[in-house]
Amino acid sequence: MSLIATSPVSLIDTTLREGEQFADAFFSREQKIDLVRLLDAFGVEYIELTSPAASPRSAADCHVLASLGREAKILTHIRCHMDDARLAVDSGVDGVNLMFGTSELLRRHSHGKNLEQILERALEVIGFLRASGLEVRFSSEDSFRSDLVDLLTLYRAVDAAGVDRVGVADTVGVARPQQVFQLVKTLRGVVGCGIEFHGHDDTGCAVANTFCALEAGATHLDVSVLGLGERNGIASLEGLVARLYAVDPGAIRERYRLPLLPEIVEFVAQAVGVQVPFNACITGSAAFSHRAGIHVKALLENPRAYEILDPEDFGVSRRIQIAHHLTGWNALRHRAGELGLVIDDRQIKTVTRKVKARAGDAPISPDEVDALLRAESALSAGVTLDTAVVEGGRR
Ligand code: HCA
Ligand code: CU
User: Fold this and answer.
1) For residue 167, which atom of ligand 1 is closest to its CA?
2) Which domains are seen in the chain, by residue range?
3) What is the structure's pLDDT at 390?
4) Taking 80 as the threshold, does the pLDDT of residue 104 lie above it?
5) Rounded to two decimals, what is the model's pTM?
6) 215: CB partners within 8 A, 6+ apart
7) What pLDDT is recorded for position 394?
8) Which residue among 295, 324, 325, 334 is the active-site one?
9) Which residue out of 198, 210, 223 has the highest number of ligand 1 atoms within 8 Å of its CB and is therefore the one to mutate?
């Protein structure tokens, strides 16, 4: 049994909280509703929203989104403060993600509180939220630059106070996968509640760090569509889904409606006015594009040779490039088959030589390659291309 099949991992999509903090993001109420519906249909277990304390608009949207029929639980992300907690309860959400800055830097420059004061405040807010019947998570902002003893003291105390989970946040994207593994593993031995991980991508480690947290015993993983968030964001939904699928495709196919993923990514990209990056996992334009002759030869015999993810599971197609000087004859034979052409291997090799020669000097288009294949095929039928076209036209 894989890690994923046996562990009760939940995805917390925070596109509508962390993602709202992305430089160019603006979500209208209608877009928020559509996105909650899409994410819910996809099957994420939780959706996190901006705090109702952030603005009148956030408060109003929180009410509306929490009242939608859905399977996913709705969380709101608030400061560890009674005023914010009251607003969260009033908004009708299922749970609250609380956070407090614990690093020396944040204590000094943000809220100015010491450990005792942080704990006192946390216990008051946690008690209130639990009494109101909400799911509660307590997280320490900037966990990796916080004192380990302070951190564990705090987590132990909030665990004893009955939180559903504690959160580890790599707020500045400084953590390395092994560090994440070690901290979460240590924490796993200290608290009995769930463990959430939230990782920023400043150094390109967000998905790896998030996956390492899972391997070390985390139960809840934060993601956002396209990885949107402060600065260059956090682990992306599509990246983490790819990562999990690579471990256990069956379990992930069963748990999530994978063909919805490209639609969700495109929807969010349009909403915030960005292009889906060409190299985004699963959804980027080049994610299933194959070029080199050696790759294509093996791929055509067995796609698994060069694909760890099956594009069909995500409702997308693989693209075999035929118009490049790296193109091999297997790709062209495959293309001829798609075009329904009668053409033998010797002729395919002739076309391959022509493609390599022409495409070595300047880019050529797939249409030009198709035309070369058609012309060669027409030769074998004993007619010139012009006649073939005319005869085709008469049919
Ligand atoms: C931030 C806060 C946060 C919180 C994460 C969490 C972070 O916007 O700075 O509550 O788990 O990265 O620390 O997103
Ligand atoms: Cu964050």
Assistant:
1) 11
2) 3-272 (3.20.20.70), 289-391 (no CATH)
3) 36
4) no
5) 0.92
6) 3, 181
7) 34
8) 295
9) 198
